[in-house]
Amino acid sequence: MPHKVKAVISRVKDAPVEVVDIIVPDPGPGEVVVDVLTTGVCHTDLHYKLGGIGDEYPYLLGHESTAVVSQIGENVTNVKVGDRVILNWRAVCGQCRACAKGEPKYCFNTFNATQKMTLEDGTELSPALGIGSFAEKTLVHSGQCTIVDEDADPAAVGLLGCGVMAGIGAAINTGEIKRGESVAVIGCGGVGAAAIAGAQLAGATTIIAVDVNVDKLEGAKKFGATHTVDSSKVDAVEAIQELTGGFGADVVIDAVGRPETYKQAFYARDLAGRVVLVGVPTPEMKLELPLLDVFGRGGSLKSSWYGDCLPSHDFPMLVEQYKLGRLDLDSFVTERITIDQIEEAFNKMHEGTVLRSVVEL
């Protein structure tokens, strides 16, 4: 029997979000219904609200979640009712050209639920990243569920569902940081702070946090930053070079995603160093670099999609690191809020006063 539950939608572009009743259908083949425990308020949800991702309104927002499986459809074998899961937006197909060549982390045909959740009047909802978990229940493909231990704080580990995984993965998976290397992270919001935590986990010994916000720089230290650079007062490239023997960092991660910060990352790396772009640019942004500089500096320029993660591998591994005390996921949770405080949380995010507001349902 379909469920009527409370949820948060974005009905039209750049309007305040609304708490409404939605209808969640029973799961079909390959689908599951989950009871949502926690959902982080992520910049991606704000992008949906502002029209920066598409115009398929109304959107059912939320995607960075821990949940409990409450119903399963036919042919579901990877989870059972009662399992604690982290939701993900990379349910790999196993058949596309990326999967076929052993690179499922780049799957080009990820699964989502086939059925649609709706408003009470039958209007179909577009779930954010195929999840839509600012809701008491949501419908997803079973492959979007990764089982995790029940004794881990759901508010903390649920953040692996998007932003924290993006940052950690940018450092470990995309940047391939090695023990003893130097790393600079430009932008110390949630994703940047996670990249710093990932650099520490990977064994980097010099970790430079760069931002224009002194509070974010101070916060970066608890995630592993060994040095901080206030780029509103000094030249970030020169400061990074000075902190790395005049050479530049082995890996520079741009967690902002603007042409200005990407150029900083490009020139702040050592010869043959790696640049990782994990901050998401807007469609109108353009980048101009001398091609000779691209050639002459060598190394690699990489983009990181979802931290180049494979949820079935990375989520349990990182939860284990959290339980062992090697990864401080708790510090990413700035505040715990209710479902009717999400608009206020978006405002705090815009002001840069939180790493993550987490909705507890």
Automatic annotation (TrEMBL):
One Pfam family linked to the record: ADH_zinc_N
Entry GO CC: cytosol
Signal peptide: none
Enzyme class: oxidoreductase
MF terms (GO), sorted A to Z: mycothiol-dependent formaldehyde dehydrogenase activity; S-(hydroxymethyl)glutathione dehydrogenase [NAD(P)+] activity; zinc ion binding
EC id: 1.1.1.306
GO biological process: formaldehyde catabolic process
Record bears the keyword Oxidoreductase: yes
Family from the record: Belongs to the zinc-containing alcohol dehydrogenase family.
UniProt protein name: S-(Hydroxymethyl)mycothiol dehydrogenase
Organism name: Glutamicibacter ectropisis
